[in-house]
Task: structure prediction
Amino acid sequence: MSEGTSSGRDVLWQRATVAIPYIWLLIFFLAPFAIILKISTADPIIGQPPFTPTFDDEGTLLATVDSYKFLLTDKLYGITYLKSVLMAATATMLCLLLGFPMAYGIARAGSAARSILLLLVILPFWISFLLRVYAWMGLLNNYGVINNFLMWLGIIDQPLQLMYTDFAIYIGLVYSYLPFMILPLYATLERMDLDLVDAALDLGARPSQAFRDVTWPLARPGVIAGCLLVFIPAMGEYVIPYLLGGPESLMIGRVLFDEFFVNRDWPLASSVAIILLMLLVVPIVFLQRSQAKDVEGAT
Amino acid sequence: MTGNTKNNTGSDPFIEIDNLSKHFGDFVAVDSVNLQIDRGELFSILGGSGCGKTTLLRMMAGFELPTSGRIFIDGVDVTEQAPYHRPVNMMFQSYAIFPHMTVEKNVAYGLEKDRVSKGEIRTRVSEILELVQLTRFSKRKPNQLSGGQRQRVALARALVKRPKVLLLDEPLAALDKKLREYTQFELMNIQDELGITFVVVTHDQEEAMILSSRIAVMDEGRFEQVGPPKEVYEYPSSRFVADFIGTINMFEGTVDAAGDGGISMLSDEAGIPLTGLTEMTMRKGDKICIAVRPEKIFISQHEPENEEDTRLAGVVEDLGYFGNLSLYRIRLRSGKIVQVSAQNRRRSAKRFLEWDDQVFISWHPYSAIVLTK
Result:
């Protein structure tokens, strides 16, 4: 609601600034979504484009749900979705376990050390993501740095199978997405009044209780933001499972890519994408709501 | 020391601080402090920022480990006790109210940690909320409270555990003037009612004066003077204390004659010899200072007749009207500015004195404070 004193131009500006994110969403999210949705209801054909139109020349609707039916009947897709959710969730948990103490340490460090530590967290972004994943291949290979080092130490005789395993995918996911966990956590922890922890201790809480009762609940917005920032891209990750994972470690991003570019079944690939989006919307809405409740309570 | 301390039982001190020091690297925050506080006292530690008062308080609460020295509370050595084991609670300057808990939950937190039964928690929380007049707000979240209400939540939360000692870090600093005046008296009443020993840290000398049974004036990690408010104000032990508490006019000079409990001082700033009463033994030529509070000085347009008084002539440099009193800045012949305050006893729209008026100021020798430090 605009105040009675603000002029019509101010109101216009207010509306315009609010409109910008909506326009952005419309162009870059809703429009592509509509296109993908349209393709998912077509049949694949050999041609250009490689799918049937939604309406024929007479204007009758040709849309089908065949590709969705196929997704539900072929167990491979269900298993892959499940595996993707599990792997992304596990990677998110690992990032949280590693990232929370790191973010806490950075937030409590002296101001000089803090900026250096933050820089170190962001530094990997200066190198291409692809290159960094390739570097991990070099480290994890049968005759890579890690295996060579372990053999040199005499701990193992035969190289360990590190590459092309789920383990390698976890390494890749956690390594790549850890900064996305640390940064929002750092932002909330840094804002937190340290007196609150002292107050809890003063009132008789052990340090562990003070953490549970005060630090953790107040860090929750950061935890939620960090988890979403890790879980969502990890869920659709393609490069990491493709380069580091084995044939067993199917993740939905890889299936999606294969349907598009190997099988050239665009409708099926589109429906895979639509289902993936649906799967992601559920936790996002849920977490957003709990965050809104937090904001209402605190600040 | 005058008998201004209340509930002074004359027994062993309730809090004893023995040669306590805290170093942060090369910086000495607290420097070999000794202090004894009696049960039920409302004791203030007064000093400017960075004088070490907060560090001292945090050592009493258990948040900082002293570099050396010991702290005893009720006969128990608590120097190395963790904060959660001490019979001490603290009210933080920021209040440190848990933003994600209701008023009620905030206050109950300390009791929950002590595993007090649910029923008792409920009674004690409602009792203490009654005491600080927050019963109506018990279900509110902290962000729905005003500054004064938050302050009372912090107080209630610290008091509900019935600590032996309550530490208060700048308890009134965040409140506006009117609320501060009201809360000062409320705090004193609560302290009186519960009989808990209060240790207050403040930079506000007025707050310390009104609240405390005794004040310790702190500077650079050391106590400059410890005593009841009146003693610290009327009998400051050093230039620092005299200047820190209230306003004061200081004349620097050298001893001309001493003896018989009084001295005479030569001062270029005053232009005439000044006299003062002192028990200290001094020799001619000693550098000393005679200090007079603005309210102890009389101002008149005609030369006062009392020969015993110190009388100086000057010109009104500046004046300020404060409603209940007027402040004058008088320039002496030496150029020295003297501050004088006078009650506006008579109702009048006209000013009694104007800028550049020739005036005389005078005070009784008994009002003059002789300072050597």
DSSP finds twelve helices and no strands in chain A.
